[in-house]
Specification:
Layout: H1 3-13, E1 23-25, E2 30-32, E3 46-51, H2 56-65, E4 72-74, E5 80-81, E6 84-85, E7 88-89, E8 104-105, E9 108-109, E10 115-120, E11 125-128, E12 131-134, H3 139-156, E13 163-165, H4 166-169, H5 183-188, H6 197-204, H7 215-225, H8 237-250, H9 261-274
Parallel strand pairs: 3-10, 3-13, 4-10
Antiparallel strand pairs: 1-2, 4-7, 5-6, 8-9, 11-12
Helix pairs in contact: 6-9, 7-9
C-alpha cells in the first residue's frame, strides 16, 4: 500500500470526508487544500519599467551574470516566434528579481519584494555640448512592452498609479525609463496613470504654465501621489530631483526640476483622480 492510499485510509477511518483531489502528498506528510482563507492578496502590487543603458548582448549579460536582474527583458528589436514578438523571462514572476534597489513608493519600501520589473534595451542618454540627448525606443519594443505590461497588470490587478518608472521610486539615483518613454500613450491603452486634461486646466486656474509656485504645495501633492520627497517648503536639491523625476513621467516637455504652475496643476490633478 503506497503512502497516498494509506493516508486516505486513515482519514476515512477517522471519519474525514476530504476528497482525494484536495490532497497532495509531500515528503512524509500531506497537504489538504479544501479550505481557503479570504484573507489574502497578491504579492505583486507594482509594475516598474526600466531602460538597461546597454545593447542587447550586454543587457542580457548584465541581468544574468551581474548583480542585478529583472523578470523580463525586451530587446531593441525583439525576436519573433510564429510572427509573435518574444520577451525574455529571466526570473519567474513568483520570485523576487533585483531590479528596484533602494526604493520607495507611497509607504512601501524595498519594491523588489512587491513588484514585477521589465527592462527595455535602451542606451538612456548622453551629455553633449548642447545638453542631454535621450535615446528613443523602437516601435517594436513599445508594442511588445505594451502587451506584456497589460498582461501583468491584469494578472495582479495592479492599479494605474502603481505602474511606475525606476526614476519614480528612486529619483535621486535613476532616470529610467526617461522622458521619451510614452507614458501618456500607454495610459490611453489602460497601462498606467495620466491626469485628465480638464482637471489640469482647473488646477492651472488661468496662470501661465511657467509661473513658479510655492514649493510646499508641490511637495505635498507629490508625497500624496506616491513620491518620497521632503516636506520642507524649500527647493533643496533632493526636492528638485524628485520634481524632475515627476516631470519626466508626466510633463516631459520641461524637466527642469522647477516647481512651476503646470507641474503643480498636473500633480493636483493626479491626486484628485487617483486619491479623491
Amino acid at each position: 500500500m503506497n503512502k497516498f492510499v494509506l493516508f486516505l485510509a486513515v482519514l476515512m477511518l477517522a471519519g474525514c470526508s476530504t476528497a482525494p483531489n484536495n490532497l497532495s502528498v509531500k515528503n512524509g506528510y500531506a497537504i489538504d487544500t479544501t479550505h481557503s482563507s479570504p484573507n489574502q492578496n497578491e504579492r505583486v502590487r507594482y509594475l516598474v519599467l526600466h531602460y538597461t543603458v546597454f545593447d542587447d548582448k550586454d543587457s542580457l549579460d548584465a541581468l544574468t551574470n551581474g548583480t542585478a536582474s529583472a523578470h523580463y527583458l525586451v530587446y531593441s528589436t525583439p525576436p519573433t516566434h510564429h510572427a509573435l514578438p518574444v520577451a525574455l523571462q529571466l526570473v519567474p514572476e513568483a520570485k523576487r528579481a533585483w531590479h528596484a534597489g533602494v526604493s520607495q513608493w507611497g509607504n512601501r519600501t524595498h519594491l523588489n519584494d512587491t513588484s514585477i520589473g521589465i527592462e527595455i534595451v535602451n542606451a538612456g542618454f548622453i551629455d553633449g555640448p548642447t545638453g542631454r540627448l535621450w535615446f528613443p525606443y523602437t516601435e517594436a519594443q513599445l508594442a511588445l512592452v505594451k502587451q506584456l505590461a497589460a498582461d501583468v497588470i491584469k494578472r495582479y490587478a495592479i492599479e494605474p498609479q502603481n505602474v511606475i518608472g525606476h526614476s519614480d521610486i528612486a529619483p535621486l539615483r535613476k532616470s529610467d525609463p526617461g522622458p521619451l518613454f510614452p507614458w501618456q500613450a500607454f495610459a490611453e491603452q489602460g497601462i498606467g496613470a495620466w491626469p485628465d486634461a480638464a482637471m489640469v486646466h482647473k488646477h492651472l486656474a488661468g496662470r501661465p504654465a511657467s509661473r513658479q509656485v510655492a514649493v510646499g504645495t508641490v511637495q505635498r501633492a507629490l508625497a500624496t501621489y506616491g513620491y518620497k520627497i521632503p516636506q520642507t517648503g524649500e527647493l533643496d536639491e533632493e526636492t528638485r530631483q524628485v520634481i524632475r523625476a515627476f516631470q519626466m513621467h508626466f510633463r516631459p516637455a520641461g524637466i527642469s526640476g522647477i516647481p512651476d504652475a503646470e507641474t503643480e496643476a498636473v500633480a493636483l490633478a493626479l491626486v484628485e483622480k487617483y486619491y479623491p
